[in-house]
Automatic annotation (TrEMBL):
Keywords: Ribonucleoprotein, Ribosomal protein, RNA-binding, rRNA-binding
Species of the source: Bifidobacterium psychraerophilum
Record protein name field: Large ribosomal subunit protein uL15
Annotated GO biological process: translation
Entry GO terms, CC: cytosolic large ribosomal subunit
C-alpha cells in the first residue's frame, strides 16, 4: 500500500494561493478619453451610436417612442376639488330610526362613512323621524324631505 514518502505527498491548494490565470486579468479600456489613450477614434471604432457621445433619454433606436405612442393628456384635473362621501336618506333612517342629531362623527361611529372627508346627504329614500344635520351638506331633495319631516340642516 501507499506510504507517506516524498514522492506521493499531495500539496493542498489554499485560498491565499489562488491567482488568476496569466493573461486573464486585463485593465478595462477607458473609451473616449482622448487620442493619446487609444489612438484616432479614442477606442470607439468608427461611426455608429457608440462612436458618438451619448443617446438622448427616451430614444428607442428609431422606433416610435413611448411618449409619442401614448395619447395626449386631455382636460384638466382640479387639485382643489372637494370629494364628498354620500349617504342616502334610506341609510340615515336605518342608522338613526328615532332621528336626532346627525353629524360626521356620529356617521363615522356607526360605520356609514370614513373619517376625514366631507359628507353629503342625498334624497333617496323616505324620512319618518326628524333629523338635525350638523356640519353635513344635503341635496335639495334631501333638504325638502328632512324639513317636511320636521328636521333641520346647518352646514357649518
Amino acid at each position: 500500500m501507499a506510504t507517506n514518502t516524498e514522492e506521493n505527498k499531495v500539496e493542498i491548494l489554499q485560498m491565499h494561493d489562488l491567482r488568476p490565470a496569466p493573461g486573464a486579468k486585463k485593465d478595462r479600456i477607458r473609451v473616449g478619453r482622448g487620442e493619446g489613450s487609444k489612438g484616432k477614434t479614442s477606442g470607439r471604432g468608427t461611426k455608429g451610436t457608440k462612436a458618438r457621445y451619448q443617446v438622448r433619454p427616451g430614444f428607442e433606436g428609431g422606433q416610435l417612442p413611448l411618449y409619442m405612442r401614448l395619447p395626449k393628456l386631455r382636460g384638466f384635473k382640479n387639485p382643489f376639488k372637494k370629494q364628498f362621501q354620500v349617504v342616502n336618506l334610506a341609510a340615515l333612517s336605518e342608522l338613526f330610526p328615532k332621528g336626532g342629531d346627525v353629524d360626521v362623527e356620529a356617521l363615522v361611529s356607526k360605520g356609514a362613512v370614513r373619517g376625514g372627508y366631507a359628507v353629503k346627504v342625498l334624497g333617496q329614500g323616505e324620512v319618518s323621524a326628524p333629523f338635525t344635520l350638523k356640519g353635513v351638506k344635503a341635496s335639495a331633495s334631501a333638504k325638502a324631505k328632512i324639513e317636511a319631516a320636521g328636521g333641520s340642516i346647518s352646514e357649518d
